[in-house]
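Re: the pair you flagged

First of the two:
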Amino acid sequence: MPPSNKWCVRWAVCLSFVLALIPWTRGSLNCHKMCICASNIVSCSKVNLTGVPNDLPNYTSVLDLSFNNISGLRAQWTKHKLPNLHNLLLSHNRLNFLSSEAFVFVKQLRYLDLSSNLLRQLDEFIFEPLVHLEVLLLYNNHISQIDRTAFSGLNSLQKLYLSQNLVVRFPSELIKDKSRPERMSLLDLSSNRIKVLPIADLQALSAWVKDGMYLHNNTLICDCELYSLMAHWYIRRLNSAVDFKDDHTCVHPSPEKRVLRVYDLNTHMNCSTFKETDEEFYLDQTISLRCDTRHRDMSKTWMLPGNIILTPGNNHSYNVDKDGSLKITSIKPEESGVYTCFAVSEYLNETLYVVVKVHNFTLNGNNDSLNTAYTTLVGCLASVVLVLIYLYLTPCRCFCCPDQGKSKNLQEDSIHSSMLSVTPTHEDMATKAELNRHVAFIDPKDLQGQNGKVNPNGEEEVDEEAMQGKGKRKKSVADSISSVFSDTPIVV
């Protein structure tokens, strides 16, 4: 055989060998004969599978196993790791069991659909390996028990669908600060059997989280706290409240167990009509005002009272945090007013108003305004009372004293000489003083030259020569200077 022919034969043998290897190579990748393989997508939907096909290609990024009869997902449902698998669809099967190690070989999952199956419970740490998972669909199952650690490790979770199940306990671990996925913007718990909500935890959530918190069609117990919560969401025009307004119902805690609309509780249960309250703070307190928008990533600008736009560096007592909150250091009463936040994004513009009221005293209760105005008022009232007591509640006059002699000579009362009369006459001054007595402060100097001298005891020393033949007599204490403060009105 010529050398050229031998060379051609060798090439033909090699080519046939390579062609023979091609089907074997495809068989090793095991694109199941009932599945459809397109690039890195493997679709085995609606082919009555009872288990996951073995030896899936390791380059698979999307695996669709929906609408089959798969009953469980065991630890080694795939023989080797699938590092590129991002989407796994297992909806509309007969899944009633998930192994605790079912997702060990698919840690790169970002989308997992387990909806419309027969799952009854979620065990502890079941999804912990899925640190990159963003969307988890569990709706339309029979889930009644959720372990508190079932969603641990889902740090990247953004959307969780748990509607149309038998859930009784609200999974509060999904909304608490320490355990809540930071970027979770949708939690659908509608159409379950939840009776009580963690009101305080829900109120503390940002508006962009509450905007995707769906709670309608549950068996919630009616109370005014539930009404206030949902009324606030509706006033803020949150989608979760507005889109399903008529489906927010609750069960009245009465023997009849009536089903009422949550937004009608202000009439059925006399709940007070919800009203947004002002933010109240104290003198020298450092505060933070939230720009609580319905979308997370928005550009935010603040306007201070008096229509002053806050710009970086124009006031050292105002600072805007990374999340858009306005921080005010040592707030003063004159900084009370309406603070406006303008939020802008590609899809939405929002304007939020925060009304701030600052009390003129510190948080410890040192009320400066009370120390001035209130104390002054009390002092004035006390002064008026003391004056009235001084004028009208003095001891009785001495005409009621039993030892007062009838021979008292009222005309010799030296104090009467200082009384002021309506007309300057020399009539009987003692008689007019009884009818027209007024408070008088007598200077002892003014009494010089009168019929006697005043001593410190209020007694009058009578001149012996003037009283010759009559004996000595002491002026009664009752008729001393203090006796002029009686209850008899005096005209001056």
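Second of the two:
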Amino acid sequence: MEGPSVPSATDEDILPCPVQEEDQEPLLRSQQDTGRTTAATTMLHRKPLVDVLAAFFGIGAWVAVNGLWVELPLLVTDLPEGWNLPSYLSVIIQIANIGPIAYSLLSAFRPSLRPASVIYGVLVIGCLSSLLLCVLWQKTTWIAGAEHSTALLALVFLLSLVDCTSSVLYMPYMAVWRGIYLPSYLVGEGLSGLLPALVALAQGVGGNSECVNVTNPDNSTSLQPAPLRPLFSVTDFFFILFGMMVASALAFTLLENLPSIRSERTSLPGPTYSESAMEASRSNTQLVGREATPSPKSESPVMSKRMYAVMLLGQAWACMLTNGVLPSIQSYSCGAYGNVAYHLAATLSALANPSAALLTLVLPRARVWILGLLGTLGSLVAAYILATAALSPQPPLMGTTAGEALVVLAWVVFTFIMTYVRVEIANLMREQGARALFWCGAVTQAGSAVGAVTTFVLVNVYNLFTPYYPCS
């Protein structure tokens, strides 16, 4: 006969009583306060001096080459290459990618090589080249019966070598510092594109060209463009760039040698950083492909082979346009509309570039069909830009305010859209793993090189584009 049943200890009995909703509020408040305290502690336990030095160090990443591009509206009026000068620069900068390739090979054969030792050499070359550019940019020589800006072109190669190599040097160096300082470096690297553009905007071009009577050596007279009168000269602009390079070199030297900040270093790499931040920091998307840091695959679905190929083709196409084709013919596209339009197109598109890349940090990942739509829109705008260059010296709406505004708007919109598309494609490929990133980088460089070389041949060998002479 069974005795009276004794209540057994169930799971419900031994678990703590459920917390009522009104009892949860103090607990949640406590957790939030703890999170805020932790974040505040992290902010307090940092040295602002390291933030400042990291930002100034980052400014030297692309400041020289970015400065050259925004100064082209003045350079093309003084140098013998004239409107062909941008096509020379595009090819030279692509050739300068031997710098990061050489460093990558050196690192493979000497794994113990510290980036800091190479950075010193790179910064010395950058500072010396920037200084020489200030005094030699107008020096020309005759080669095969034609006058060329040999000093400027040689120094552009050295500066491009420095800036291209910085992409594989500076970020690994920042990994020896606590991860909280990486955003400060990225801000500085972004400023390497913004600052030259802002300086160029302040400089101006002195208005559009005016024709004046000039007495020739044979006492005859002819109409020629009057010299442009910007707020300050090209030489002064290059000295400003030189100052930025020196500031970057000094900041790096202090980072390496100040005893008071050595405690902020870590022997391990910092936390994984956003690929979008790396993309946004490289303001000179016209010039080189982006190196992406491999990261583990995310939970995003694996791309089909067809979509994989479409993404790579889209990246190659966007890079061919933005890094090679259109920069080479910007003078032909804008020149007939006047120096002011050319100046605004060059500087404002330089500002649109990092702005678009930074936008990817705050927006959710774009869907593939949106990227396709944006890429198509950007290609249509590129077609209009190519038309203005091909129809030079009589492009559409020439001599009207609407024409000037339209060509400037076209360059800004094109740069903004294609930069956004390129960054988002790189982000999508990053989510597919290291191999996808490798191929993304490969097609970036291939597309850029094909675009630059092809346009150089069309401009300088076949002379398919005709410059505009305001006083002819």
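Confidence is low (pLDDT under 50) at residues 1-28, 269-298.

-B.
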